[in-house]
Each structure stands twice: as C-alpha cells, then as structure tokens.
C-alpha cells in the first residue's frame, strides 16, 4: 500500500475523490468519474464497507501501510483530544506531507521520493525518513546541490496552488518554516475519520 504503483485514476474513481493528485490521474478521473468496472452501478455498501473505504482513503492519500497507520493510530490514542483528528494531524505533520503542502512538489509520491533520496535537510541535518514528524519552528531546506536546486525551482515555478497556512515558504531560498502545528481546520483530506476510529478500535 505504501508504494502503490497501479492505476491511480482507478483508486480515485473507486474511492470517489482526488486521492492521487498527478495530472494524468486527475484527467482520467474527470473523464470517467463513475466507479471502475464494465457496467458500474450503485451498490448498497455496508457500514463495515464504508469504514474500510474511508480507511483506504487515508492509506492511499498519505502513502501509509497498515502497520504505519496502526502505529499512528496508537500514538493518536495516547494524545489528549479527539483521536480521529489527532490521527489526521499526525499524518499532516509527516515530512513528506509538509514538503507537498509547501508547494515544493506536485504530489505526495513525489515528496516521498524526494525525502527518501535525501533532497532535504531539517534544521540543517540530513533526513531521509518520509514519516519523520515535524515540530513548530522546524526549518526544511532543499539540499544545496545544483541539480537538486534546479529540479525544485522548476517544480515551484509550475506550482499553481497555495502553501498551507501553518507553513511559511521562502521561494528564493527554497526553505520551509513550520511556524505552527496544524489544527483540524488545516486537514486536507475529506474523510469520515470517526468511522475509521471505530473500525480500528475493534
């Protein structure tokens, strides 16, 4: 699941949302928004089926495996507040998610690959762990190598979105500053997380 390489538009159509953000997947999803299959038709889905679908949204959107999601769920349960919100906020605070939300990449798989290949430093230190949790005050830099800097300058120039409110992006220096932690209003994935919490609490 964490390295899904199959047809992304099919996942978008099956889960009914823009889970994968690549241009090809979005074009194909817009062209055929109905669920995949030769003769797609509305089917009654059980509560369990709906919960599984919501869980799959989280796993595909953030690129998580079952074990990673379970680990985050257990961590969220030990935190104060709403477990579902805490789970999604922990997902948003992953380093690869921060790179994506800053506008340095167009998709989360791109961000995950960049982090894994060592394209970024956190507070001046090398970090190649996509799941690393950022904290308020952290500074993420693109590594100062000519080919890497050129790659990300090109991506930033093509970016037509908006940097997340809880991040500050310095386009000139290719630097991202986490000026605060995200809140429930900053969560980017529309998902019924309470159904996921109920499912995973069994």
TrEMBL record:
Ranges for domain Small ribosomal subunit protein uS4 N-terminal: 3-92
Origin superkingdom: Bacteria
GO cellular component: small ribosomal subunit
Location of region: Disordered: 22-50
Domain RNA-binding S4: residue ranges: 93-149
Function: With S5 and S12 plays an important role in translational accuracy.
Quaternary structure and partners: Part of the 30S ribosomal subunit. Contacts protein S5. The interaction surface between S4 and S5 is involved in control of translational fidelity.
Full protein name: Small ribosomal subunit protein uS4
GN (gene name): rpsD
